[in-house]
Design brief:
The complex is a heterodimer of chains A (460) and B (283). By secondary structure, chain A is an alpha/beta fold. Chain A folds into 3 domains: 28-250, 3-Layer(aba) Sandwich (Rossmann fold), CATH 3.40.50.11540; 252-342, Ubiquitin-like (UB roll) (Roll), CATH 3.10.20.600; 347-444, de novo design (two linked rop proteins) (Up-down Bundle). Helices cover 41% and strands 11% of the residues of chain A. Chain A has a 5-stranded mixed beta sheet with strand order 6-5-9-7-8, with no helix packed on it. In chain A, strands 3-2-1-4 form a 4-stranded parallel beta sheet, sandwiched between helices. The longest helix of chain A has 25 residues, at 411-435. Chain B is built from 8 helices and 6 strands, in the order H-H-H-H-E-H-E-E-E-H-H-H-E-E. Chain B is α+β, with helices and mostly antiparallel strands and 283 residues long. The longest helix of chain B has 19 residues, at 107-125. Chain B has helices spanning 24-38, 48-59, 64-74, 78-85, 107-125, 167-179, 194-201, 220-229; strands at residues 99-104, 138-143, 155-157, 160-162, 238-239, 257-258. Among the domains of chain B are: 24-85, Orthogonal Bundle (Arc Repressor Mutant, subunit A); 99-201, Glutaredoxin. In chain B, the strands form 2 sheets. A 4-stranded mixed beta sheet of chain B has the order 2-1-3-4. In chain B, strands 5-6 form a two-stranded antiparallel sheet. The relative contact order of chain B is 0.13. Classes of the chains: A alpha/beta (460), B alpha+beta (283). The interface between A and B is large, with 141 and 116 residues. Chain B: Its cofactor is [2Fe-2S] cluster. Chain B: Keywords: 2Fe-2S, Iron, Iron-sulfur, Metal-binding. Chain B: This is NADH-quinone oxidoreductase subunit E. Chain B: It holds the Pfam family 2Fe-2S_thioredx. Chain B: Belongs to the complex I 24 kDa subunit family.
Chain lengths: 460, 283
């Protein structure tokens, strides 16, 4: 299984070298997560917290929008839409209330950046909310947090309380005339609510089903009023841009994908975790500085941005992880959820499980997604169990094609991605399951505790 | 996909009578809470999800009485409230345990050992997915990705994080819960009951001293990038092989620290049922 010759020697990155961790990484949002009480207002203020807000409140709202637009910040929730442009779409002087809704419904399989961010540094989001609401002239912001993360809910409740007490929320913030209320809203378990229009329906107290667009939320969002829906990390990145300047922000990343972002490394890697770096870093660089794959194993397939982004293989290790780079290589940057699987992992098992997820989470509104994901699961379970037929492979490809792009929202597209990409790179492995009438992999070898002898004797 | 057929309560003929109301004192207490929640929102119906959490905090699951209460508070029909409550997987439709133990079996956690943990717990507790132990302590469920993939495999108890689990540690966890021993998550506050958790979800902050501070700023995996950027080596890690190369040229490989994962083992059970945790339907 292991291909020892493929691995380098046990060297250590040279300090200051081009590929040293100090050069590759750029902690901004995560810069002080290691402090004992990183989540408190006091800690945040010690690290120039709410300075960006002070600068923004001294500016005219339209100037803030222009500044964020010039910085080139793009949405960190998956689609990569320019944040400033989203704000600019809000009609002004229309006499209607405007709303900011922060999408903290992080549920895309593999994605795990917003939750640690909010757990360790919730004030970066609160400060970003004040700046954004000043820019779009909103007096009401909502943080829609998925319900299944109570530790984060606790910290958000506390951060909002602290911000009110300090005068950063509430009436006439720092004498600027801005009134702003922030409501922390816990969801109740539904992946689809990460889709912005489903989220709005859910926030209105309905079943979370996507809406037909247009009208877009910027025109008719929450309560049919102009609404900006932004990802947590997008909003939390704004204070640093205001405080340190758009040129500083643009000094990182590329022309079209500037700035820093959180990359989440998970799976069969030596050191899973959060790596904040300029956009455009490669998986090879991240693996090089972080210890690579787990000892004795090699990368087989990985996702650049969650399960909904077409999978990559070893040949994509040098793809720049920015919006353009990943797009050009046939996938999407998504949420930068780098789930890495080694050669012990059965790709059919992985795709089957993801497909079961999409079938479970399909809201049922659109027929192609609702029915298609159901039938994909039936076929994939048969293939995985060795009961499939060769023409099932064309059939799942065909069903995925009938889902992709044919529903209201992107959930169906996400369901099709792993099917298409795994058939593209690993069709042979599907065929092995069919000709060999079963799965050739041993799931025990993929576990966190594989290769240790600690399990011996406990099989009572 | 969301509809689950009603179990043994299919009735023909006369429609069911309205659900009974809460006792007067309970009703008064819940009404005061509900009004506080409703006042937060520009549109009252937005309070429906929190109110469903609130009635779940009262009874441990969503009852017809709870649905009637939400409907009356928001001027909705019970059908409208029921339609919403059945859409979301966190609302329970049957009485269940004080501790909801959820094992992530989405792909990454499943591959890293979540499948083995879930199978092991089912066997150890003698219950299936969604079932509750006879002592009413534990309801076992498989759950979807809970945004902690860098801590895989993950188990959630009452929606607090138990990271990097193994079959053995998970068994110890449920044994401790059943024995009434204090259990602390790797990230989150010391456990309270499911009802108390539901009250937080309704929007009422946790007032227990030390609850917000518990387990510190960030988990170890969240800090690895930061530590490397500061020139530190992640603790407890030794040198070892690096990532594979596909090109012959380029700079020589460089290696960083590796984890001493300190796995405590436990035997992953055979995966004799390929469908595994996915054979249950619906949310």
């Amino acid at each position: 299984m292991t291909v020892a010759a493929e691995f380098g020697g046990p060297s250590r990155p040279q300090a200051g070298g081009a590929n040293s961790p100090e050069k590759v990484l750029a902690p901004v949002l995560s810069a002080f997560w290691d402090e004992p009480e990183s989540w408190t207002l006091q800690t945040y203020l010690r690290h120039e917290g709410y300075e960006g807000m002070r600068k923004a409140l001294a500016m005219a709202p339209d100037d803030v929008i222009a500044y964020v637009k010039d910085s080139g910040l793009r949405g960190r929730g998956g689609a990569g839409f320019p944040t400033g442009m989203k704000w600019q779409f809000i009609p002004q002087g229309d006499g209607k209330p405007h709303y900011l809704v922060v999408n903290a419904d992080e549920s895309e399989p593999g994605t795990c950046k917003d939750i640690p961010l909010l757990f360790a540094n919730p004030h970066s989001l609160i400060e970003g909310i004040v700046i954004a609401c000043h820019a779009i002239r909103s007096h009401h912001a909502f943080i829609y947090l998925r319900g299944e993360v109570v530790p984060v809910l606790r910290r958000l409740h506390e951060a909002v309380r602290e911000a009110y007490a300090a005068g950063f929320l509430g009436k006439d913030i720092l004498g600027s005339g801005l009134d702003l209320d922030v409501i922390v809203h816990a969801g109740a378990g539904a992946y689809i609510c990460g889709e912005e229009t489903a989220l709005l329906d859910s926030l209105e107290g309905r079943r979370g089903q996507p809406r037909l667009r247009p009208p877009f939320p910027a025109v008719a969002g929450l309560y049919a009023c102009p609404t900006v829906v932004n990802n947590v990390e997008s909003i939390a990145s704004v204070p640093a841009i205001l405080n340190k300047g758009k040129d500083w922000f643009r000094s990182m990343g590329s022309e079209k994908s500037p700035g820093f972002t959180l990359y989440s490394l998970s799976g069969h890697v030596a050191n899973p975790g959060q790596y904040e770096a300029p956009l455009g870093v490669t998986l090879r660089q991240l693996l090089d500085i972080s210890g690579g794959m787990r000892p004795g194993h090699r990368l087989k397939f990985w996702t650049p941005g969650g399960s909904s982004t077409p999978m990559f293989t070893e040949e994509h290790l040098d793809v720049p992880l920015d919006y353009e780079g990943v797009g050009a290589a046939g996938s999407m940057l998504g949420t930068k959820a780098l789930q890495c699987f080694d050669e012990t992992t059965c790709v059919v098992r992985a795709v089957t499980r993801w497909t079961e997820f999409y079938a479970h989470e399909s809201c049922g509104k659109c027929t192609p997604c609702r029915e298609g994901t159901y039938w994909l699961v039936q076929l994939l379970r048969d293939i995985e169990a060795g009961k499939g037929r060769m023409d099932d492979l064309d059939k799942i490809d065909d069903i995925a094609d009938n889902i992709n792009g044919k529903s209201f929202c992107a959930l169906g597209d996400g369901a099709a991605s792993p099917i298409f990409s795994s058939l593209k790179y690993f069709r042979e492995e599907y065929e092995q399951h069919i000709t060999g009438k079963g799965c050739p992999f041993d799931p025990a070898k993929s576990t966190l505790w594989a290769g240790t002898d600690a399990h011996l004797g406990v099989n009572a | 996909m969301n509809a689950t057929p009603a179990r043994n309560d299919v009735q023909l003929g006369m429609p069911r009578l309205p659900a009974p109301d809460y006792p007067a004192d309970v009703r008064a207490r819940l009404e005061a809470d509900a009004k506080e929640v409703i006042a937060r929102y520009p549109g009252s119906r937005s309070a429906l999800l929190p109110l469903l959490h609130l009635v779940q905090a009262e009874e441990g699951h969503i009852t017809r009485t709870g649905i009637r209460f939400c409907a009356e508070m928001l001027d909705l029909t019970t059908a409208e409230v029921t339609a919403v409550s059945t859409f979301y997987s966190m609302y329970r439709r049957t009485p269940s345990g004080d501790y909801q133990v959820g094992v992530c079996t989405n792909t990454l956690c499943a591959v890293m050992g979540g499948d083995a943990i879930f199978e092991d717990l089912k066997h150890h507790l003698g219950i299936g997915n969604g079932e509750t132990t006879e002592d009413g302590a534990i309801t076992l469920e498989h759950i979807e990705c809970n945004a902690a993939c860098d801590f895989a495999p993950v188990v959630m108890v009452n929606w607090e994080f138990f990271d990097n689990q193994t079959p053995r540690s998970a068994r110890q966890l449920v044994d401790d819960l059943r024995a009434g021993r204090t259990v602390e998550p790797t990230r989150g506050a010391p456990l309270c009951t499911f009802k108390e958790t539901a009250r937080m979800l309704a929007g009422f902050p946790d007032r227990r001293p030390g609850a917000v501070e518990a387990t510190g700023g960030a988990g170890p995996a969240s800090l690895i990038g930061l530590r490397l950027a500061k020139g530190e080596v992640a603790p407890g890690h030794a040198d070892h092989v690096v990532s594979p190369r596909t090109t012959a040229d380029g700079p020589p490989d460089e290696a960083g620290p590796s984890p001493a994962a300190s796995p405590d083992g436990g035997v992953p059970p055979r995966r004799d049922d390929a469908a595994g945790p996915a054979d249950e339907e619906g949310k």
